[in-house]
Design goal:
Blueprint lengths: L1 E10 L2 E4 L11 E3 L3 E3 L6 E2 L3 H12 L4 E2 L7 E2 L2 E13 L5 E12 L10 H25 L14 H5 L1 H5 L17 H16 L5
Antiparallel strand pairs: 1-2, 1-5, 1-8, 3-4, 6-7, 8-9
Helix pairs in contact: 2-5
Length: about 200
């Protein structure tokens, strides 16, 4: 067995490596064995939880954060931390094959009202656009009557990277973060609607 990790963020529709801060924007491809992946992302082998925590803490310092009208420490990107388990299986002819499993921890930036200006506004527009695409994918996948219908995963880098989690064979849990504040009513309702749609999705495991 071998455990590897990579960590990246989607900022203004650009996929950035959080482990290798000097890396160029990451490509997204679909591999027959590994599913959707970023082949040029820096991947580290880990041996214990101490190494894992250190990688997460160091990489989190590189996440794009800023102060907005709504939040003092606002995530300006979606982040995906991926753990890959490689299992080498010995075959009778001394050859071997490798099976892959992956575990994704995804932190979605929250939807925003268009009260910001300049750079913050551009970031908010891209966040909302990717969340809107995610909602569209959930709409199609949550209704059995839409079986076989085209799902627009490629309309956003976020949904493309989450394709295996949304419509593939990955077990998925969604935690919906909402606000009790009356001024956040619209965002809270949209979040709950998305969570309800996600709960209705049936996948083959």
């Amino acid at each position: 067995y071998c455990i590897k990790v990579c960590y990246f963020e989607i900022y203004n529709e650009i996929v950035k490596d959080l482990i290798n801060e000097n890396a160029t924007p990451l490509m997204i491809v679909e591999d027959a064995q590994k599913g959707v992946m970023c082949p040029n992302a820096k991947e580290l082998i880990i041996n214990d939880t101490v190494e894992l925590k250190k990688i997460i803490n160091e990489s989190n310092k590189r996440r794009t954060m800023a102060t907005t009208n709504q939040n003092q420490f606002s995530s300006r990107s979606h982040a995906i931390f991926q753990i890959t388990l490689e299992k080498k299986i010995q075959k009778k002819n001394l050859d071997y094959e490798i099976s892959y499993s992956k575990f994704l921890v995804v932190d979605l930036a929250g939807s925003e009202k268009s009260s910001e200006k300049g750079k913050r506004r551009e970031e908010g527009v891209n966040i909302n656009k990717s969340l809107f695409t995610l909602s569209n994918c959930l709409n199609i996948l949550s209704e059995k009557s839409n079986t076989g219908k085209f799902v627009p995963y490629r309309d956003s880098k976020l949904t493309r990277l989450l394709k295996d989690s949304l419509g593939g064979n990955i077990l998925t849990v969604m935690l919906a973060c909402i606000s009790p504040c009356p001024s956040s009513y619209d965002e809270t309702l949209n979040t709950l609607n998305s969570a309800f749609k996600a709960k209705k999705i049936t996948k083959m495991h």
